[in-house]
Design a protein that fits this description.
Elements: H1 9-24, H2 29-36, H3 40-47, H4 55-64, H5 70-81, H6 97-108, E1 111-116, H7 127-133, H8 138-147, E2 159-164, H9 165-169, H10 175-188, E3 194-199, E4 213-217, E5 225-230, E6 233-237, H11 240-256, H12 275-286
Parallel strand pairs: 1-2, 2-3
Antiparallel strand pairs: 1-4, 4-5, 5-6
């Protein structure tokens, strides 16, 4: 089998998991290779994602490393068996590799959590808003629309978004586009598996709220993944020690944000400010613009 030239984030993550398991078990590459009937260099290439691994050898690897958790084992088996192909494959010539990796991770996630600072989360964007963000690139707009299908009622993937108030005031596309976008947020909040909270400007607690990220829950907590957005591009984090702080950070952001949108209410409660009232207030101001 030849080496892979283009390594997907799933393949890289699978190799990282195998390496962490081997190191935790105190086994060298040569020692695990003896168990699997592989040379040490082949083990290293497998851990780097350059070589695949069949299910028989994966089972031997997990047994040698003492992995007994059924959910974790099942998650690794699914990663091993996947060929990485899906609806996103046809967009390979038109979007960056990180976008393809994100779509693949979303397709296998058990839940999603998103924190955004200056943009509406991609899965909650209207077509008009997305067109402005992607400068009317038809294929990129269509790709984002396809990604949003994970939130369709028939899929019902749990999604929790904390959105900074700044994103509601950005006039991307003008007042009409933003008014439609805010209306869409309210409509999306009607779905029982979608939770939306707004982090207000006047929040007096600082929780490193300047970096947007997405937390994708896997079939086991050890397979959770963070997509970190920064000026240099997108970075995927999979090491449990790297993911844990973002899990705690999102929990803190939920506590700092206004209560979630409750579309069963006819208006904001006079007893407290809430996310529904915040969005409706900004949307109302846009009616006169």
């Amino acid at each position: 089998m030849g080496f892979r030239t283009d390594i997907s984030e799933r393949q890289r993550r699978f190799g990282d998991e195998l390496r962490r398991l081997r190191n935790t078990a105190g086994l060298s590459a040569a020692e695990i290779g003896d168990v699997l009937g592989m040379k040490g260099p082949a083990v290293s290439h497998t851990e780097a994602g350059r070589l695949g691994l069949n299910l028989e050898r994966l089972t031997l690897w997990l047994d040698a490393c003492g992995v007994s958790d059924p959910d974790y084992r099942a998650g690794l088996v699914a990663m091993c068996r996947s060929n990485g192909k899906g609806w996103w494959s046809e967009y390979r010539p038109f979007v960056v590799p990180a976008a393809l990796d994100l779509a693949e991770f979303e397709s296998t996630a058990t839940a999603l959590a998103s924190y955004q600072t200056h943009l509406i989360p991609g899965l909650l964007q209207t077509k008009g808003y997305t067109e402005v963000i992607h400068e009317y690139n038809e294929r990129k707009v269509d790709f984002r629309n396809r990604r949003q299908q994970v939130l369709a009622p028939e899929n019902a993937l749990p999604f929790h978004a904390v959105i900074h108030e700044a994103a509601l005031h950005m006039m991307y596309g003008g007042p009409t586009v933003m008014r439609d976008q805010l209306t869409h947020l309210i409509e999306m909040a009607r779905l029982p598996h979608v939770t939306i909270q707004i982090l207000p400007f006047d929040c007096t607690v600082y929780a490193s709220t300047d970096t947007a990220f997405v937390l994708m829950h896997g079939p086991h907590s050890r397979l959770d993944t963070v997509l970190l957005e920064n000026p240099h591009g997108q970075t995927f984090l999979g090491d449990p020690e790297e993911v844990a702080p973002f899990r705690r950070k999102f929990d803190r952001l939920k506590g700092m944000a206004l209560p979630p949108l409750d579309t069963s209410m006819s208006g904001p409660s006079p007893a407290f400010r809430d996310s529904w009232g915040m969005i409706q207030h900004i949307r109302y101001k846009l009616l006169g613009r």
